[in-house]
């Protein structure tokens, strides 16, 4: 009988992260200082990040060793299995082979601790006592709470208010690991107070929560800021996912045709797909599909421009596909996919047509998620379900064309803390929402003017 789960032993786990920067088709545009709008130097980032992470952010070294202390913690859940969704294939009546990398095996239930553990380690090593961060759906906040707990760091999480209200058990999980969780916008920071003055009922956004976390970090010498997506060093740490996937496919002699991941800021899609990108650049026929919500269509409707990373204009300015830093998304249930921009590395590859993107309303996404749960048994996170929906669509195309393609998607997290969203879907209370073009155009009017570089 053919195996449906492909494992690696702990000895086969990757010992290095892959840095895509030396293999990009062209250099990444430099990040800019939010005040001077000049290229950032290491000294500009030092109040926010430890030097080891700053070095990784700009590194042109293709392979970077994973510290032994980080590897030891990774072994709590890594390597994760690559699974074949044979039952789903049968129901879809597709000749395609569908595989998924199951990152829900981690203690927080998602891919996020791959970087949370690494970031906590590097901060601890440089004497940091406390980390601040933001979180949307709560996957990142719970992952950083987990990482900080293991290294004895305090953790302050600013959680987007609508998610704080929709997902109370994510807050409980963070607090179980010792974190303090504050709904954002809050009255704890000037950035939060400014937003509340304009709109006392603001549902919040990742851009606002980032502003609060950055402001908090800058106020204290013993504190640094930690980000769960977008930045180069975050994506670097996530490449262990793609490296394991590549080794697992090689183990069974399978070449992927299509690789798929959901995109909010870009870390899980990028970590999963980047180890395969050089193969496509060298001429191998492969497709990379980034799936996002129509309520926050960053890649599919945004513009490739320099923009602030946060609402209060305190974070670095980076070139990315953006809906504008003032973007306030609707309170949809795909809470983690609400950032106004995407990772600069991913955006460059999308602009170069190496990566493609698709956007979905939430009802078709939950239909796909429910189908998967009933057939394969695992309840996907709403964010993950976007990738699943894209995989099902590609499998159905293979059925129509009678093509035997290999589809691999990143199952970035389970939905055990998202059952209120499933309640709404099953009760037919979810509304499909497409962010209006006029709102996007209005938000884009406020992009920063930067000097020609």
Task: Give a quick summary of the entry.
This protein is an alpha/beta fold.
Q: Mind explaining what this structure looks like?
A:
The protein is α/β, with parallel strands linked by helices and 453 residues long. The chain contains 19 helices and 15 strands. The protein has helices at residues 42-45, 51-58, 68-74, 86-92, 113-125, 139-151, 161-166, 168-176, 190-198, 206-219, 232-251, 267-273, 277-281, 298-301, 344-351, 362-376, 382-401, 419-426, 437-444, and strands at 5-6, 16-18, 63-65, 82-84, 97-102, 130-135, 154-160, 180-184, 223-225, 258-262, 287-293, 303-308, 317-322, 356-360, 406-411. Strand 12 (303-308) and strand 13 (317-322) form a beta hairpin. The radius of gyration is 20 Å and the shape is globular. The model has no long low-confidence stretch (mean pLDDT 94).
List the helices and strands and how they pair.
Blueprint: E1 5-6, E2 16-18, H1 42-45, H2 51-58, E3 63-65, H3 68-74, E4 82-84, H4 86-92, E5 97-102, H5 113-125, E6 130-135, H6 139-151, E7 154-160, H7 161-166, H8 168-176, E8 180-184, H9 190-198, H10 206-219, E9 223-225, H11 232-251, E10 258-262, H12 267-273, H13 277-281, E11 287-293, H14 298-301, E12 303-308, E13 317-322, H15 344-351, E14 356-360, H16 362-376, H17 382-401, E15 406-411, H18 419-426, H19 437-444
Parallel strand pairs: 5-15, 6-7, 6-9, 7-8, 10-11, 10-15, 11-14
Antiparallel strand pairs: 1-4, 2-3, 4-5, 12-13
Total number of strands: 15
Assigned CATH architecture of the domain at 5-9 and 67-109 and 232-444: 3-Layer(aba) Sandwich
What class, by secondary structure content?
Answer: alpha/beta
Low-confidence stretches: none
Q: Overall pLDDT, averaged?
A: 94
Largest sheet: 7 strands, mixed
Instruction: List the total number of helices.
Output: 19
Tell me the Rg in angstroms.
Answer: 20 Å
| CATH fold naming of the domain at 5-9 and 67-109 and 232-444 | Rossmann fold
Q: Strand order of the main beta sheet, please?
A: 1-4-5-15-10-11-14
Helix content: 40-55%
Quick one: overall form?
A: globular
Report, as a whole number of angstroms, the end-to-end distance: 59 Å
Assign the CATH class of the domain at 5-9 and 67-109 and 232-444.
Answer: Alpha Beta
Beta-strand residue percentage: 15-25%
